[in-house]
């Protein structure tokens, strides 16, 4: 189940990145991480921490919601 959730999350990140016409390198630079790290997240190979999820949201200018509460 963990792998399926990671893959689904990775697809969301990939779609948000592509909507902005960003490469993985662009997103990585925005977050000050390696592009390989972004690739692992997008492929569902890396389960990101909550801190990383919040950093992704900030870089992509989206909100993270838990129910109806904004994180």
Please explain how this structure is put together.
The protein has 71 residues and is mostly helical. The protein has one domain: lambda repressor-like DNA-binding domains (434 Repressor (Amino-terminal Domain)). The protein has four helices and two strands. The chain has a two-stranded antiparallel sheet with strand order 1-2. The protein is globular. The termini are far apart. The model has no long low-confidence stretch (mean pLDDT 95).
Main attributes of the structure:
71 residues; globular; 434 Repressor (Amino-terminal Domain); 6% strand; single chain; 4 helices; two-stranded antiparallel sheet; mainly alpha
* Name given to the CATH homologous superfamily: lambda repressor-like DNA-binding domains
Count every helix, treating DSSP H or I runs of 4 or more residues as helices.
4
Low-confidence stretches: none
Question: Could you say which overall geometry the principal axes of the C-alpha atoms support?
Answer: globular
Mean pLDDT: 95
The helix content is 55-70%
Number of beta-strand segments: 2
Alpha-carbon distance between the two ends = 24 Å
- Classify the beta-strand content into a percent band: 5-15%
Biggest pleated-sheet summary: 2 strands, antiparallel
Order of helices and strands: HHHHEE
Q: Under the CATH scheme, which class?
A: Mainly Alpha
Q: Which structural class do you get from the secondary structure elements?
A: mainly alpha
Return Rg in Å. Answer: 12 Å
Number of domains: 1
Strand order of the largest sheet: 1-2
CATH topology: 434 Repressor (Amino-terminal Domain)
CATH-derived architecture: Orthogonal Bundle
